[in-house]
Design goal:
The complex is a heterodimer. Chain A is of the alpha/beta class. Chain A has five helices and eight strands, in the order E-E-E-E-H-H-E-E-H-E-H-E-H. The longest helix of chain A has 12 residues. The two termini of chain A are 30 Å apart. Classes of the chains: A alpha/beta, B alpha+beta. Chains A and B meet through helix 3 and helix 4 of A and helix 1, helix 2 and helix 6 of B.
């Protein structure tokens, strides 16, 4: 699978671990609930760790754990739920997350310019056919009225 | 008025290019209906009964003569030669072709206009007092702050997918002419005990299905914190506003369910974390103020002696002067309302030739600028007293001088069932009937200040719940019925109208309205306005008469 990271097409080496599934070797990304349930086990895992956030999650609960994480996935159930835009802004800005902040799921390629301005640096749309559009649309505007959280 | 710099122009041009691409992709089947819907709404494009409808932003209601001419050109070239003024001081075209909308937006961009965020679940056009900068009761001109808010809200990356639409209004005067108590956020310029001017911030007001009067959440905010405070409110709303039910998704419901105190605590806590990084410095504020300096007023204007004579010789002119012009802070000047409520025309509709003529008159008599009002009229803000007679004659020839501003035929009216896909009932037809019934101007002026607002459905685009008389169209088993409310107001003494009784049938609405007005004329005390009488006696005397014949 491929994704866009730092405005280039890259291979995705992370393993998506759904809530019922067993952990696997390598770099793994789990839900926030799973992270909270089995944090000690996950911390002894060899490989990088990521946590998946949904719109209804509270990112403040993850703030203290951010140094232990290399990836946070912001998983869009649909493009209209704008809470993830604020979650990204908080993670990147207030809580100072330095790792990969990845939009996944059902965001629109037409939203990626905004998403990049709130701190998201990787995009993995549900449909990989969208990848060329994601790349193109990252350049929709060269001017802004608001500060970007990453500048 | 504000003039675009290179950044503003580039942003609007790039937005046009983006929407052109989105439209092409939609027409090629590369965007789904749902996706394109969200994108087109954020560019003002609705799909209505007959055709798409394009809502063009008029930031805080200010238009130049050049912009009016462009609107005329668009009406003629892309529409059926007219446009419509909305209650957010915007302009709507009812008949554009979807595939031509990117071209229309490109035309608008050439005169520093756009349709960004005029619909959709995002921050909408900021509105204000149509008499800003010229009225006699002003604490400070609100327009520079409106422009700062315009820029901050435009293409805000974090807040473009809110739970629901979000509306901000700013008032700088003692009398609220911007309905700020019925906005998601109302901003009032106020003076504190130390004599400094800042903002009072109201939150949680709104109309629509659940009308709510906004509450003060911060009595005084220093000017430099305006944008950080707005950002704190928006972040809390974006994170915690309900998304499970669109009818409970406005911030008014969040404020109500959370409680004003707890909501305020959440916002203040958020604000503490961002305020120091977002201060507006004095230089930024004065730079924007530099776009709203007073025009070159004629110091000899008060020396005019023609007005009294013209009033004496031309009673129609005197009547128009009394009802359609208002005090100006500069001696020798008046602000003039152009009534877009001629009896035989849908309220707020303007033709291409009227728009062009208004542009010419604005250049001749009012420094080339026009304002739109939330009651769907226009204002020439700076007319010399000596020019009023000539202006009146020309406005009269254009059917823009009906002396009915603030009277019972100055009706706010939505497009209703004739145009709108949401409507349950007609509204333009009712307005016409009421106009016909109140065609005696002496009677109309005797009744005086009565605000009638008519919406064709409970979404309430015409603000019926705050009309002195509100009329709401409802559907009863496929026929159009109308609920009447009395006693609403969107001004300082904000109030939500009380229901008079059961809905009345379409052919009985006008009779009901004339009965209500007759009860007022019969039972009013000396100098008592309609609203004051309703507040004094309640709805019962009106109810008895309206339902007596049923």
């Amino acid at each position: 699978m491929q994704l866009i990271k730092n405005k280039t097409v890259t291979d995705d080496n992370w393993n998506f671990i759904s809530d019922g599934a067993a952990l696997v070797k390598g770099d793994i990304c789990v839900s926030l609930a799973r992270w909270q349930q089995i944090k000690p086990e996950l911390l002894s895992h060899t490989g990088k760790l990521g946590v998946r956030i949904g719109p209804a999650d509270s990112v403040a609960e993850l703030a203290d754990d951010l140094p232990k994480l290399d990836l946070i996935e912001l998983d869009f159930p649909d493009f209209a739920d704008g809470r993830l835009f604020s979650h990204a802004w908080l993670l990147r800005g207030r809580y100072g997350f330095k790792g990969e902040l990845r939009a996944t799921g059902h965001f629109m390629p037409d939203q990626v310019f905004y998403l990049s301005r709130v701190g998201i640096d990787a995009f993995k749309p549900a449909d990989s056919a969208y990848l060329p559009k994601v790349l193109e649309n990252l350049h929709d505007f060269t001017v802004n009225y608001q500060q970007s959280i990453v500048n | 008025m504000y003039q675009y710099n290179l950044i503003d122009q580039t942003l609007v041009d790039q937005r046009v290019a983006q929407f052109r691409r989105q439209t092409e992709q939609y027409l090629n089947g590369e965007l789904t209906e749902d996706q394109f819907r969200a994108l087109r709404l954020r560019n003002g494009l609705y799909v209505q009964i007959h055709a798409p409808m394009l809502r063009v932003a008029v930031p805080y209601g200010l238009l130049s003569a050049q912009q009016l001419r462009k609107l005329a050109h668009i009406a003629r070239t892309y529409d059926k030669s007219y446009c419509h003024l909305t209650t957010r001081q915007n302009v709507q075209f009812n008949w554009p072709k979807l595939e031509q909308v990117p071209d229309i937006l490109a035309e608008l961009a050439t005169v520093q206009m756009h349709a960004i965020q005029t619909s959709g679940n995002c921050m909408r056009n900021t509105t204000t007092d149509p008499l800003a900068g010229v009225c006699i009761d002003e604490i400070e001109d609100p327009r520079p702050y409106c422009e700062l808010i315009r820029q901050w809200t435009t293409l805000h990356p974090e807040f473009d997918y809110l739970p629901r639409k979000f509306k901000i209004a700013v008032s700088g005067a003692a009398n609220d002419r911007a309905a700020t108590q019925f906005h998601d956020i109302g901003v009032h310029l106020v003076k504190n005990d130390a004599g400094d001017i800042g903002f009072s911030i109201l939150v949680g007001g709104g109309l629509g299905r659940t009308p709510v009067i906004g509450q003060v959440m911060r009595p005084y905010l220093e000017k430099k914190h305006l944008l950080s405070y707005l950002e704190a409110i928006l972040r809390i709303y974006n994170l915690f506003g309900r998304r499970d039910n669109k009818y409970k998704a406005r911030i008014k419901i969040l404020v109500k369910e959370t409680g004003l105190d707890s909501f305020t605590e959440m916002v203040e806590a958020e604000w503490q974390q961002i305020k120091d990084g977002m201060e507006l410095d004095e230089q930024r504020i004065s730079e924007i103020k530099g776009h709203f300096t007073a025009p070159d007023y004629d110091p000899t204007a008060p020396q005019d002696s023609s007005l009294a004579q013209q009033q004496a010789q031309h009673p129609d002119f005197a009547t128009w002067y009394k009802h359609n012009t208002t005090d100006h802070k500069i001696p020798g000047y008046r602000a003039v309302y152009l009534s877009v409520k001629a009896p035989d025309v849908p309220p707020g509709d303007l033709t291409d030739s009227q728009l062009e003529a208004i542009a010419d008159l604005a250049e001749r008599y009012s420094f080339g600028e026009v304002r739109s009002t939330h009651r769907q009229n226009l204002v020439f803000a700076d007319v010399k007293q000596a020019d009023l007679f000539a202006l009146w004659q020309q406005l009269d020839a254009l059917h823009l001088a009906t002396a009915n501003i603030g009277t019972a035929t100055d009706i706010i009216c939505c497009p209703g069932l004739d145009f709108c896909s949401l409507a349950n009932a007609g509204s333009i037809g009712i307005t016409k009937e009421i106009n016909a019934a109140l065609d005696d101007m002496d009677y109309l002026h005797d009744i005086g200040d009565v605000k009638i607002n008519i919406s064709g459905c409970m979404n309430g685009c015409a603000h019926q719940s705050v009309g002195h008389i509100g009329i709401l169209g409802v559907d009863k088993k496929g026929t159009e019925w109308y609920q009447i409310t009395l006693g609403g107001s969107s001004e300082n003494e904000a109030a939500i109208g009380e229901r008079l009784g059961p809905a009345v049938a379409k052919d009985e609405v006008t009779q009901a309205i004339t009965t209500i007005l007759a009860v007022y004329v019969e039972q009013r005390q000396e100098e008592e306005s309609f609203l004051a009488m309703v507040q004094r006696v309640g709805i019962d005397p009106f109810k008895e008469q309206v339902y007596a014949t049923h």
